[in-house]
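Example record

The entry below shows one chain as it appears in the dataset: sequence first, then structure tokens.
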Amino acid sequence: MKRQIFLKASLLLVAGMLAACSSNDDNIEDDGTKGGKKVDVAKTVEFNVEFADYNSDKEVPSRAACDQANDTLYKKLVKVSDKILAEVTVKRDAPNTMPLAKTRALEDGIYTMIAYQGTTYKGETTGTISSGVFHYLGNKALDLEPGTYTFVLCNDKVGRNGNDITVTAANAATALIGRTTYTVPPTPAHQKVTFTMKHVCARIRYKLTSYMPILKPAMSYDTSKPIPTSSVYHPGTDTWTATTTAMEEHPLTCSGGTKADDNDFYNAYCDYVYLLMPTVASNKISFDLGDENTTTYNGQKFRFPAKWLPASLPLTPNSSYTFTFKLFYRFLYLYQDGNILDASYVMPNYKPIAVIVSQSKHLAVALEKANNGQRVQWYHTDNHVNNMNNVYYVLNVNLGSSYGDMLGYHYTWEVNTGFDNTTRKGDNQTEFPAFYYAGHYGDELAAKHITVTGPIAGKKWHLPSNGEFALLYYNLGFGEPLNKMYLSTYRWHEKLANLAFTQVGANPIFADWKDDYWTSTEMRTYAVQGYCAGHVIHEGNWQLRWTWYPKHETQCRVRPFIYYK
């Protein structure tokens, strides 16, 4: 009995060894991979499908990092017109997170899964996507022998040309392809493979940003060289080839421009342009921004070709970029040698010292406050019964005329101003500190090693009058008409006015709530107050209030002005 059991066990062992030898020797394929019984991977492997939005595979900074300009790929200041400059920036769009809506979008349509071994086509099957999982349709199997394969999954917005996948320009925005590598084992059990579906195209769009409304924004798109109108994707090599090309030119749909965002900017966007691969943007793509009806900054028309594209812009599948043209009013500056130039001429050791508030009147305002920003009195002591200027304005009588008062230089430097007909306020630090610090602003420039030369050498600064300050309010901040009752507030474009100073490295003119300035204009109020001095105060929310203050009780800041001709 024991002998029979031993004999049976020996025969079983020999049979097992023969079977093992057959498995090791007979199932070696010509390409060196181990073969065997084919596996229907469509049925035995769970293929999960994810959606990768544009730039999701790129390192795009967070919003806080964006504010640090770490995501800026390109930046340049260009002249748009005689009145408008634009700061051009190119940034990658921040990818959206993948909410359920994005996953559900993959459920629509038929998807094809193709298997390649190396560059050799091995089979395919079709299916749908539900809850992020590929489900095959019908009875068509995807039988593969054990080995390593490249799987490509594509939606029904692509075509087939043999082993290659074709995409036309009409489907560039909606075509999706996923690619993954998987080793098929002889007996798959609980196997999961993940596809990440990506856009086959790159996309770019243009954005206009202004401190004032952009009316009737218009944009069009054209190419200087042919770009792909159909392309072929080669799954075996993961590369693209253009099959047909053409020149493109057409208008784009624009939106926005008339409603300010939370930061008080006005933004107009064009729709995205979708580009098949391979495309090089820097020498092929351009946009025309604006037309004869497009305006900003109180009716300034603009129309210009946007040809400033960075040569190194990496246009790859699933990449997305926004080209922003931040439109600035083209402020002009008085430079230290007397030249009048815009902000694009700011260079080391060649500095602007003032912003032009009126070219016709040759009037400019200092880039910084006098007396290092410290507050001072208009007049040193209580004297409200006597006027200090030979011209003054009476509340409720001729107050409106004070907004045309252009005598700031006269009040600061001429002796016949009505005080004592001998004193020049600009030289009287003890009695008229506001006038003195305005008039001696040149000393502060010299202390900063800024040498004034040319036609402005010897020109004197002065404390501005109501009318001169009003020119700043109108021409730098496009303020509403000064025609309300006294002590009323007036809305202006504060960010724009501040930009005139900050874009050349100076401090904003109104940096703090309740920031204020003296004017040299004098007015007579009610009997108790007597004669008071003009005063402009920042009320917040982009509003200014034109007021009066007792000349000795209050200390305010001083902003010098200069006539440069």
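Notes for this example: The CA atoms of residues 39 and 187 lie 8 Å apart. Residues 2-26 form the longest helix (25 residues).
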